[in-house]
Specification:
Polyketide_cyclase/dehydratase, 3 helices, Cyclase, 7-stranded antiparallel sheet, Alpha-D-Glucose-1,6-Bisphosphate, Chain A, domain 4, alpha+beta, globular
Amino acid sequence: MAEQSTQSIEIEAAPGDIMAVIADLPAYPEWAKGVRETEVLATDDAGRAAEVRFTLDSGPVKDVYTLAYDWADDGLSVSWNLVKGQMQKSQRGRYLLEPSGPHHTTVTYTLSVELALPMIGLLRRKAERMIMDTALRELKRRVEDRS
């Protein structure tokens, strides 16, 4: 099993407002860097995305992959794993939202990616950290701009 990387960020918003942005997967191309297209392939009984195909185009990195989502009933976390990918053998991720004061939430992003082509662990972890840093900053900007 691949090692995972973890990062956190403080967002000035309630957990429900943040989860609403995370759960709006069709809107990702509007704000998530490199995401060119998303397609919800299946939903769960609550109407949330259960399986989503992503088209990623970030300069030299291009990929099409499908993720399966598992939404926590308390609305404070969502996890996902790779169903199918071109460049990836596996991907596991999770957003965990923890209230940290009135209208403040700590968002922790955990990610583990294993590419189809071998990559030195140090480089893979550096890439994961860059992906997480960008994703968290963009999430923060999207949520706080909507407030």
